[in-house]
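Please review this one:
***
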Amino acid sequence: MKNIIFTSLFCLLVSHQILSQIQTRIINSEQLSEIKRFTSKHQSPIIELPPVLSTIKTYMKEDSIQRYDNVPFRFGVGIDVEITLENSGIWEEVIGGRVWKVLIRSNGAHSINLRFDSITISDESKLYISNESSSMIYGPIDNTNYYNRSGKLYSDLIQGETVLVELFVPNNAGKTNSLRIGKVIHGYRDLFYESGGFGESDSCNIDVACPLGNGWEQEEKGVAMIILDNGTRVCTGSLLNNSCSALTPNFLTAFHCVDVDGNKTLSSSEINAAEDWFFRFQYQSPSCNGPDDTNYLSYPGASFKAAWKETDFALLELFQLPADGSLLGWDRSGNIPNSITTIHHPKGDVMKISQDNESPSLFTYYNTTNSHLFVDDWEYGSTTTGSSGAPHFDENGRVVAQTHAGDGYDDCDPDKGTYVGRFLVSWGKDNNGNYLPGRDASNSLAPYLDPINTGAVTTNTIPSETPLISGTDLVCNSNTSFQIVNYPTGTDVSWSVSPASLFAIDSSTDTIFTTRAASSSSAGNGTITAIISGACGTLYTLTHDVQVGSIQPGPIDVEMGAPPRRFTAIIEPVEYATSYNWYLDGVLNNYYHTTLAIFNQSSPYCGNSYYVGVRAINSCGASAQTYTVAYESPCFFRLTINPNPSNNETIIQVIDELELQDSAVEWDLEIYDEKLRYSYRKEGIKNLKITFTTSDLNPGIYIVKAYYKGEVLNNKIVVP
C-alpha cells in the first residue's frame, strides 16, 4: 500500500540508543605503520599477575566433568585486581595531549580480556587495548560508543599473555577521566587456535564462509557471540525482528546462559550480570576453512526482559542497535520444519553453520508438553558448548527455536543430536493475545516481539540499519526516482513533497518514488518525505532535501579598475551549479564559467556604465539571469538611469559637475533599440532630470544618448 500526499514534516516516533560500535582489528605488518596512535618515548610499566595454574587445573577438571552438562562454555579464569589511573601506569606527554599507559601480563595466557568496574571518558579522549605489538587492537573506546547502566565495561579478548592499555587525553579534554580495572581474565583455552583453520571447536564444524553458508548471509549478520559470567564464559544469541519492524534490538539466547550456577532459577545478581554482557557480531573467518584473524564489532550492555527454563530461552534488549546487522524473522506457528539450520559460535570459535535436512521431532522437557524440537543427527556440522542460545531456522530462514543442550554424543559423532527450545512455546500467549496459564511478561516472548498484540505469526528478516531515502539532490523537468534503502518489509509508505508548488508527482511504489519539477521555471529548495507505517502505527519519518530546477545566483559584486582598465564581477557559489554564463551589455561572454569574471573597460575609462548579467548552470539547465549595472567614476558630464532595469518607468538624469543640478541648460535625448532603430527622441529638454516611461517598450536592452554642451553621453537601459 502506498499513498501520495502533500504535507509538512513529521517527527520520528521510534528511537533507540544512538551510539557507535567498538571495533576489534587484526592488523598486519603493512598496516601497522598506518594506524600508529602515539609517539611514545618510554617503556610502559608492567603489572605481573600472580600465577593461576592451580586454579586452571581445577577448572579444566570441572570442564571435563561438565562437558555434556547444560552450562555455558568456559574459557578463562578471572583474577581480581585494582588498576586505576592513580595507582598504576605512567603519564607521558605526546603531540596534542598526553597518554596514560600500562602493560598487564598473565604468564601462559592464550588471551586476556578486562573488566572495568567503573569508567568515565571525557570528550575527545580515547581508550585502546592491544597486544604489545599493536597487531591486535580493541578500540577506540570513547564517550560515543559505550553505555552501561551498571558502570561496568568488558573488553574484547586480546590474543597473547600481555595487553597494553592506553588512554589518550587531548589538550582540550573536558571533564575528568577515570577508570578502574577490577578483573583480568586469563584465557586458559585458546579461542584463537588456528591449526587447520579451526579454533576450539571440532573439525566437523563448518565456517559460514563455506558453500553451506551461501544464501544465509543476511541471517548470519544477526548472530553474535556473547562473553558472559564476568568475562569467562561464552554463549551464542541472535537479534530478533518484532511485529512492528521497529528496529528494537531484542536479543534471544538461552536461559542457562544467564543461570550460570545451574540451579534453574535466576537470581538478581545473575540478571544484573547478564545486563553487563559483551556482544560480538561479525566474528567469522573471511574464507572457508580460513584463518580466524578477522575484524569484528562489539557492543557492551543490555537490558534483561524475560526468561523461562521450560524452553530454555532468555530475551534481552541491547543498549545499541548493531550496525550493518540483521533483525531475524521468526515463525511461531508451531509447524514442524522440513529442515533445520543453526548459525552459532561453538566453544567461542568463529561463526559456524550446521544443517539437518530432515524434520526434527517433538520433545517434552520439564513436563511442558512438546516444549522442544529434537534434531536427531546433523548432516553437516554439529553443536556443542558455546552454541547455547543459537538461533535455529526453518527452511524459510525464520527462527523457530534456540539451542538448549546436546544429547550426550561427542560433538562430531554422526549420531550427535541437539535439543532446541521451541519459539511457539516460548511465546506465552494464545492466538487471542491472552497469556497462557502461568505465563506473564517475565517468561514470555510475546509482549516484546508483538508489543501491541497484532497477532503476527511470522516476521521476516530485516536489516538493522535505519531506513533512509537514497537519490539525487537535484530534481529537474525529467522524472527523478528516489528509493528507500533498508526498507522494512511488511510496512506501508506514504510519500510527500514540500512545497507542493515545486513538484509534479509521477508515480510511486512502497520503496520507489518518482517526481519532477512542476515546470521549466520551477526553482527552489524542496523536501521529499516518506512516512513508513506498520501494524504498530508510524515507525519512521524519512526526509531528503533536494534542489528543484536551476537556482538563480545572488547579488553581483563589482570592483571597478581591478585589474587596471578592467573590472571584476563576482558572485557567491550556487549549490549544485556546474558552471556559470556571464553577460556584458547583453552579450554572452564565453571566457568565464566560474563565479568570477573580468571585463574590459571602455575608453575614456570614466563615466561609463556596464550592464552585467550571470546565469547559474546545472544539469537542469540555465537559471534566470541576475543583473547589475556597474558605473565608472564620473567624468565632468555623465548620464545616469535609475532604476535600471526599469520598472515601467525610470529616471534619466544628466550629471553636470560644473553646474547646479537644477540648471536649465537645454539638451537632447535619443533612445535606440539593439538594432540601432529609434525608439524615442526628444529635443530641447530644459530639466537635467526627466521621468521616462518604459512600459510601451519591448523587453531588451536600449542604448541611451544625451547631447549636452557639445558632449555625447552614453548609457544603456534594461527593460525586463
Observations:
- The radius of gyration is 37 Å.
- The first strand starts at residue 2 and ends at 6.
- Residues 1-19, 29-36, 194-198 have pLDDT under 50 and may be disordered.
- Residues 53-65 form the longest helix (13 residues).
